[in-house]
Specification:
The protein has one domain. About 50% of the residues lie in helices and about 0% in strands. The protein is built from five helices and no strands. Helix 1 packs parallel to helix 5. The longest helix is centred in the C-terminal third of the chain and has 18 residues.
Length: about 150
């Protein structure tokens, strides 16, 4: 299973994401390619504490959902709603200039890897995760949305 902590995995997944264009068609869901870029940036920023989000942790999220999301070698399900703070049609960061937003995602992803400190970072649903879990979650989130756009 891929991980952002592995430089080769990180390079490969970021190259897939960077190949998206503003008019890339989605295979499912309602977000645009540009909205997806902003959504991913918001999600990484939220986990680093750089974007305020509501804590939605509970026993099921911290145990069962976290285990399934990070360890089962199957694609994530399609159509699970995101939190409003990371939804570009709600309270998420609105898309602005595509290339600048893509560059921000790439920089935010690198910051997420560089600052991978389980004591300082928390996922709004899964709670605190080890560095290894964070690396897998970040990779799987990027992969989920790359597949959404056929990348």
């Amino acid at each position: 299973m891929g991980s952002l902590l592995n430089p080769d995995d990180r390079r490969t997944i970021l190259a897939r994401i960077a190949s998206v264009t503003p008019d890339s068609p989605r295979r499912w869901g309602r977000m645009s390619a540009h909205g997806m870029i902003c959504h991913l940036t918001d999600a990484f920023a939220a986990c680093m504490g750089d974007r305020p989000v509501t804590d939605r942790t509970n026993l099921v999220g911290r145990t069962f959902m976290r285990l399934v999301a990070n360890t089962l070698p199957v694609p994530w399900p399609k159509g699970i709603p995101t939190m409003p703070e990371c939804d570009q049609e709600a309270d998420g960061t609105p898309p602005a200039e595509f290339k600048a937003d893509l560059n921000e995602l790439l920089g935010t992803t690198q910051a997420f890897v560089d600052r991978l400190d389980p004591a300082a970072m928390t996922h709004p649903v899964f709670g605190r995760m080890s560095a290894g879990e964070r690396g897998r979650w970040g990779y799987r989130h990027l992969d989920h949305h790359a597949r959404q756009f056929g990348l």
